[in-house]
Amino acid sequence: MLADSHCHLNYKGLAEDQAALARARDRGVTAMLNISTRENEWDAVIATAEREPDIWATVGIHPHEADAHPHIDTAKLIERAAHPRVVGIGESGLDYFYDHSDRARQQASFRAHIAACRETGLPLVVHTREAEDDTAEILADEMGKGAYPGVIHCFTASGDFADKALALGFYISISGIVTFKNARDLQQTAARLPLDRLLIETDAPFLAPVPHRGKTGEPSFVADTAQFLADLRGESFEDLTRATAENFHRLFSKTRA
Asked: CB of 229 within 8 A of CB of 174?
């Protein structure tokens, strides 16, 4: 049992690459969550989920795209999230590393996504880069308005931020970055995360883990990240993959329907 909790299958033709999907299934991947980042992807991402029974979809606007999507509000997200194959909202959040969109616009978009999660009960998929303080502040402030579930995707932040996210009830998803030699701080955090809050992901076609660095990422590589994590944490591969798959279906509970 392996769940790739975050991938972009409609990038670089992965959604149509039946060989890549077969490789994932052959390695034990039983669930893949296909993430959207802009409105013009939504139809294709949902269509992939309609076609493939082990792939689900999200609807959302990446912080890089916030300036280009001022019309995407909570109501629009709720409307599209009603589709039976849409199981989460996002990815949304804050990215101050690239600042491709105005920070105030990113924050407004982020809050609109959170409101959609609160209304639908679907989990929020959070992207945060070089924006720990503002991300933590917004998550906590919005939690005060009413609880909502979520996951910090492709976690690379500090251990302190991990603790804040866990205290809010969030899950934390680890990508292939954890296998990189220069990821010592991330490895220390990943080693101590509670197993019942842990997810794994590829972020395919990006961030291929060791031993596939430099290649186009694909969902089958989640098995390599899982093996690395199991060794890092002193757990068996079977126990870690079973737990993270169960966590995936618990968080994205619509996948059970």
From this structure: yes
The Cα 253–Cα 248 span in angstroms is: 8
C-alpha 1 chain-centroid distance = 18
Residue 257 has pLDDT above 90, yes or no: no
Cα three-residue angle 5-59-99, rounded to 5 degrees: 90
**What backbone phi and psi angles, to 5 degrees, belong to 149?**
-90, 165
Q: Are 212 and 218 in contact (CB under 8 A)?
A: no
β-pair type (2-7, 171-174): unpaired
Bridge partners (DSSP) listed for residue 89: 59, 124
Over residues 175-224, the pLDDT tens digits come to 999 999 999 999 999 999 999 999 999 999 999 999 999 999 999 999 99
What are the tens digits of pLDDT across the range 39-94? 999 999 999 999 999 999 999 999 999 999 999 999 999 999 999 999 999 999 99
Q: What phi, psi does 127 have (nearest 5°)?
A: -105, 125
Sheet holding 171-174, edge to edge: 2-7, 29-34, 55-59, 86-95, 124-129, 150-152, 171-174, 198-200
Q: What is the DSSP letter of 173?
A: E
Could you read off the pLDDT of 16-30 as tens digits, one per residue? Answer: 999 999 999 999 999
Bin 11: left if φ > 0, else alpha if -120 < ψ < 50, else beta: beta
Q: By three-state DSSP, how is residue 159 classified? A: helix
Q: Is 242 helix (H, G, I), strand (E, B) or coil?
A: helix
**What distance in Å separates the CA atoms of residue 229 and residue 222, rounded to the nearest whole number?**
10
**Amino acid present at 218:** E
Q: What are the beta bridge partners of residue 33?
A: 56
pTM over 0.85: yes
Cα 120 vs. chain centroid, distance in angstroms?
18
